[in-house]
TrEMBL record:
Leading EC class: transferase
GO-annotated molecular function: 2-amino-4-hydroxy-6-hydroxymethyldihydropteridine diphosphokinase activity
UniProt entry keywords in alphabetical sequence: ATP-binding, Folate biosynthesis, Kinase, Nucleotide-binding, Transferase
Keyword Ribosomal protein among UniProt keywords: no
Family: Belongs to the HPPK family.
Role this protein plays: Catalyzes the transfer of pyrophosphate from adenosine triphosphate (ATP) to 6-hydroxymethyl-7,8-dihydropterin, an enzymatic step in folate biosynthesis pathway.
Protein's name in the database: 2-amino-4-hydroxy-6-hydroxymethyldihydropteridine pyrophosphokinase
Species per Swiss-Prot/TrEMBL record: Paracoccus fistulariae
Involved pathway(s): Cofactor biosynthesis; tetrahydrofolate biosynthesis; 2-amino-4-hydroxy-6-hydroxymethyl-7,8-dihydropteridine diphosphate from 7,8-dihydroneopterin triphosphate: step 4/4
All copies of domain 7,8-dihydro-6-hydroxymethylpterin-pyrophosphokinase, residue ranges: 11-163
EC number: 2.7.6.3
InterPro entries tied to this protein: Hppk (IPR000550), Hppk_sf (IPR035907)
Length: 193
Protein backbone atom coordinates (compact mmCIF):
# COMPACT_ATOMS: atom_id res chain seq x y z
CA UNK A 1 0.00 0.00 0.00
CA UNK A 2 1.36 3.43 -1.00
CA UNK A 3 2.33 5.93 1.65
CA UNK A 4 -0.15 8.79 1.14
CA UNK A 5 2.09 11.47 2.65
CA UNK A 6 3.19 14.16 0.22
CA UNK A 7 6.79 15.03 -0.56
CA UNK A 8 8.25 18.18 -2.09
CA UNK A 9 10.16 17.70 -5.33
CA UNK A 10 12.14 20.30 -7.23
CA UNK A 11 12.29 19.91 -11.01
CA UNK A 12 14.38 21.75 -13.62
CA UNK A 13 13.18 22.32 -17.20
CA UNK A 14 15.44 23.25 -20.09
CA UNK A 15 15.41 23.32 -23.89
CA UNK A 16 17.41 24.98 -26.64
CA UNK A 17 16.13 23.25 -29.77
CA UNK A 18 12.64 23.36 -31.24
CA UNK A 19 10.43 20.30 -30.89
CA UNK A 20 7.33 19.25 -32.81
CA UNK A 21 5.47 21.47 -30.33
CA UNK A 22 7.35 24.59 -31.39
CA UNK A 23 10.13 26.79 -29.99
CA UNK A 24 12.06 25.98 -26.82
CA UNK A 25 9.68 28.24 -24.81
CA UNK A 26 6.62 26.59 -26.33
CA UNK A 27 8.11 23.17 -25.58
CA UNK A 28 8.67 24.11 -21.92
CA UNK A 29 5.09 25.36 -21.60
CA UNK A 30 3.79 22.11 -23.10
CA UNK A 31 6.07 19.96 -20.89
CA UNK A 32 4.92 21.84 -17.78
CA UNK A 33 1.29 21.25 -18.79
CA UNK A 34 2.05 17.57 -19.35
CA UNK A 35 3.63 17.27 -15.90
CA UNK A 36 0.69 19.16 -14.40
CA UNK A 37 -1.70 16.61 -15.94
CA UNK A 38 0.17 13.63 -14.45
CA UNK A 39 -1.72 11.73 -11.78
CA UNK A 40 -0.22 12.00 -8.27
CA UNK A 41 1.73 15.20 -9.09
CA UNK A 42 0.74 18.77 -8.31
CA UNK A 43 2.82 21.78 -9.36
CA UNK A 44 2.83 24.09 -6.36
CA UNK A 45 5.18 26.78 -7.70
CA UNK A 46 6.70 27.69 -11.06
CA UNK A 47 9.55 30.09 -11.81
CA UNK A 48 9.74 32.51 -14.68
CA UNK A 49 11.44 31.32 -17.85
CA UNK A 50 15.09 32.34 -18.13
CA UNK A 51 17.23 32.70 -21.23
CA UNK A 52 20.65 31.23 -20.49
CA UNK A 53 23.77 30.65 -22.57
CA UNK A 54 24.58 27.05 -23.46
CA UNK A 55 27.25 25.38 -21.29
CA UNK A 56 30.04 25.19 -22.26
CA UNK A 57 30.00 28.55 -24.04
CA UNK A 58 29.45 28.29 -27.77
CA UNK A 59 28.16 24.70 -27.65
CA UNK A 60 24.73 25.57 -29.03
CA UNK A 61 21.84 28.02 -29.02
CA UNK A 62 20.78 29.71 -25.78
CA UNK A 63 18.60 27.64 -23.47
CA UNK A 64 15.26 28.47 -21.95
CA UNK A 65 15.25 27.27 -18.33
CA UNK A 66 12.69 27.13 -15.52
CA UNK A 67 12.07 25.28 -12.29
CA UNK A 68 8.99 23.95 -10.54
CA UNK A 69 8.17 22.77 -7.07
CA UNK A 70 5.91 19.73 -7.03
CA UNK A 71 4.06 17.87 -4.34
CA UNK A 72 3.57 14.18 -4.86
CA UNK A 73 2.85 10.88 -3.18
CA UNK A 74 5.19 9.13 -5.63
CA UNK A 75 8.69 7.92 -4.86
CA UNK A 76 11.72 9.70 -6.35
CA UNK A 77 12.43 6.95 -8.92
CA UNK A 78 8.79 7.06 -10.05
CA UNK A 79 9.08 10.83 -10.60
CA UNK A 80 12.29 10.35 -12.58
CA UNK A 81 10.59 7.71 -14.76
CA UNK A 82 7.74 10.15 -15.50
CA UNK A 83 10.21 12.93 -16.35
CA UNK A 84 12.09 10.64 -18.76
CA UNK A 85 8.80 9.57 -20.36
CA UNK A 86 7.79 13.21 -20.89
CA UNK A 87 11.21 13.96 -22.44
CA UNK A 88 10.82 11.02 -24.83
CA UNK A 89 7.32 12.14 -25.82
CA UNK A 90 8.79 15.49 -26.88
CA UNK A 91 11.52 13.81 -28.94
CA UNK A 92 14.43 13.79 -26.49
CA UNK A 93 17.14 11.31 -27.46
CA UNK A 94 19.00 10.43 -24.26
CA UNK A 95 21.75 8.83 -26.38
CA UNK A 96 23.15 12.20 -27.47
CA UNK A 97 26.26 13.53 -25.74
CA UNK A 98 26.30 15.06 -22.30
CA UNK A 99 25.70 18.80 -22.17
CA UNK A 100 24.52 18.86 -25.77
CA UNK A 101 21.73 20.80 -27.44
CA UNK A 102 18.33 19.23 -26.76
CA UNK A 103 14.63 19.59 -27.36
CA UNK A 104 13.84 19.00 -23.67
CA UNK A 105 15.76 18.30 -20.49
CA UNK A 106 13.93 17.52 -17.24
CA UNK A 107 15.93 16.95 -14.07
CA UNK A 108 14.78 15.95 -10.63
CA UNK A 109 16.90 18.37 -8.59
CA UNK A 110 15.83 17.37 -5.11
CA UNK A 111 13.24 15.36 -3.28
CA UNK A 112 12.64 16.84 0.15
CA UNK A 113 15.81 16.35 2.16
CA UNK A 114 16.58 12.96 0.61
CA UNK A 115 20.19 12.01 -0.09
CA UNK A 116 20.36 9.18 -2.60
CA UNK A 117 21.74 6.64 -2.89
CA UNK A 118 24.00 7.65 0.03
CA UNK A 119 26.15 10.52 1.25
CA UNK A 120 29.47 9.11 -0.03
CA UNK A 121 28.14 8.60 -3.57
CA UNK A 122 26.57 12.06 -3.65
CA UNK A 123 29.83 13.61 -2.43
CA UNK A 124 31.81 11.70 -5.09
CA UNK A 125 29.65 13.12 -7.90
CA UNK A 126 29.64 16.62 -6.41
CA UNK A 127 33.47 16.58 -6.23
CA UNK A 128 34.00 15.23 -9.76
CA UNK A 129 36.29 17.59 -11.73
CA UNK A 130 34.65 19.43 -14.67
CA UNK A 131 36.61 17.54 -17.35
CA UNK A 132 35.35 14.23 -15.93
CA UNK A 133 31.76 15.55 -15.61
CA UNK A 134 31.63 15.80 -19.41
CA UNK A 135 32.65 12.15 -19.81
CA UNK A 136 30.95 10.39 -16.90
CA UNK A 137 27.32 10.08 -15.89
CA UNK A 138 25.87 8.22 -12.94
CA UNK A 139 23.86 5.10 -13.68
CA UNK A 140 21.62 5.58 -10.64
CA UNK A 141 19.51 8.42 -9.28
CA UNK A 142 21.67 10.90 -7.34
CA UNK A 143 19.85 13.32 -5.05
CA UNK A 144 20.16 16.20 -4.71
CA UNK A 145 21.36 16.68 -8.28
CA UNK A 146 25.17 16.68 -7.93
CA UNK A 147 25.66 19.83 -10.07
CA UNK A 148 22.81 21.83 -8.49
CA UNK A 149 25.10 24.05 -6.43
CA UNK A 150 27.26 24.93 -9.47
CA UNK A 151 24.62 25.99 -11.98
CA UNK A 152 23.35 29.54 -12.18
CA UNK A 153 20.79 28.49 -14.79
CA UNK A 154 19.23 26.24 -12.14
CA UNK A 155 19.74 28.33 -9.01
CA UNK A 156 18.40 31.64 -10.39
CA UNK A 157 14.96 30.24 -11.29
CA UNK A 158 15.00 28.01 -8.20
CA UNK A 159 15.57 31.07 -5.99
CA UNK A 160 12.21 32.40 -7.23
CA UNK A 161 10.24 29.40 -5.97
CA UNK A 162 12.28 27.78 -3.18
CA UNK A 163 14.82 30.33 -1.93
CA UNK A 164 15.06 28.79 1.53
CA UNK A 165 15.27 25.14 0.49
CA UNK A 166 18.40 23.86 2.19
CA UNK A 167 20.83 21.41 0.59
CA UNK A 168 20.86 18.37 2.91
CA UNK A 169 24.61 17.80 2.50
CA UNK A 170 26.09 21.32 2.44
CA UNK A 171 23.45 22.98 4.63
CA UNK A 172 23.30 25.97 2.24
CA UNK A 173 20.02 27.50 1.07
CA UNK A 174 19.31 28.13 -2.61
CA UNK A 175 19.88 31.86 -2.06
CA UNK A 176 23.23 31.18 -0.37
CA UNK A 177 24.33 28.85 -3.18
CA UNK A 178 23.32 31.41 -5.81
CA UNK A 179 25.11 34.29 -4.06
CA UNK A 180 28.22 32.09 -3.72
CA UNK A 181 28.58 31.58 -7.48
CA UNK A 182 31.18 33.44 -9.49
CA UNK A 183 29.79 36.16 -11.79
CA UNK A 184 30.62 33.90 -14.77
CA UNK A 185 28.03 31.36 -13.60
CA UNK A 186 25.17 33.77 -14.28
CA UNK A 187 26.72 35.82 -17.10
CA UNK A 188 24.36 36.34 -20.01
CA UNK A 189 21.29 35.11 -18.13
CA UNK A 190 18.07 37.07 -18.16
CA UNK A 191 14.45 36.38 -17.25
CA UNK A 192 12.06 36.25 -20.18
CA UNK A 193 8.92 38.41 -20.09
Amino acid sequence: MRNLSLSLGLVAFGANLPSTTGSASETLHAAINTLHDEQDISISALSRFWQTPAVPAGSGPDFVNATAAITTSLHANEILDKLHRIEANFGRDRGTGRWSARVLDLDLLAFGQMIAPNQATLQHWMDLPPDQQRRQAPTELILPHPRLQDRGFVLAPLAEIAPLWRHPLTGLTVVEMLSGLSPDATAGMSPLA
